Amino acid sequence: MNKFNGTGVALVTPFRKDKSIDFAALEKLVEHIISNKCDYLVMMGTTSENPTLQKDEKSAVINHIIEITNKRVPLVLGIGGNNTQAVVDAIKETDFTNIDGILSVTPYYNKPSQEGLYQHFKEIARISPVPIILYNVPGRTSVNLSAETTLRLAKDFKNIVAIKEASGNFSQIMQIVKNKPSQFAVISGDDAITYPLITIGVAGVISVVANALPFEFSEMVRLARDQKYDEALKLHYKLLDFIDTLFIEGNPAGIKSALAELSICENNLRLPLVGVSSSTQKKLSSLLKEI
């Protein structure tokens, strides 16, 4: 569980103008993040544009990240979906050498009940050879993993070690923090509210903004985790306008625009996603320069 404290980064997948994967830019991005003291990397999450990648492309990206990282930081792999058996099969088929955990999102679209969610993650826990981070993001999935179901899973399965909570529901998150087993971690899934969540007991974040500003954001997280709240709060407010602007036109459109401003990768996405408007791009550019 301690591997997933602090700042994890949900990696983007850089594309060239022809929409092929830019492996040189991916290496530049990974080095940028690791050298600026982030704690672990998350592959094949929402930010990676995972749904637009073919199976062979996913394997190539994962293998490249494993090679570049070379065990310097832990790696988490996103494996989730709304077909439980397909998720189980994907886990069985995965080589987990050099992979430290999986991030598994709640089933989307078919909107299972809380019991259905419990049974879904029970099947994943039963066969996963690595620790599991649950991922609750009702704004994308249209289903909320309740505090009660999260706690039931945390208590029943020792290999379910954390939850990435992106519900934005402070009451729900506090109930999980208050009643969780000691070995279970609650992780922020929202960059903008990571600071206040850490003050109520959250262990860290899986971040989008840290693709672009890994040092500044991970320093804020470290200061807050060390209970140096005044210093952390200053960094939080220094970054807040940039974070808010980053998500105005969706993720990863905003972060790819910022990464292009930093000359880390080109600002290319695969349909159905498109780049941010020129006005948002100008605002992000201006805010980056201020920071």
Written as H for each helix and E for each strand, in order along the chain, the element string is EHEHEHEHEHHEHEHEHHHH
The CATH architecture designation is: Alpha-Beta Barrel
Looking at the structure, what is the overall shape? globular
Determine the fraction of residues in helical runs and give it as a percent range. 40-55%
Tally of DSSP β-strands: 8
CATH superfamily: Aldolase class I
Which fold does the CATH topology refer to?
Answer: TIM Barrel
> How would you write the strand order of the largest sheet?
1-2-3-4-5-6-7-8
- Roughly what is the average pLDDT, rounded to an integer? 97
Report the span from N to C terminus. 32 Å
Rg, Cα atoms, Å: 18 Å
- The domain count comes to 1
Distinct helical segment count? 12
Q: What is the level 1 CATH name? A: Alpha Beta
- Find the structural class using helix and strand composition: alpha/beta
What oligomeric state do the depicted chains represent?
single chain
Low-confidence spans: pLDDT under 50, at least 5 residues? none
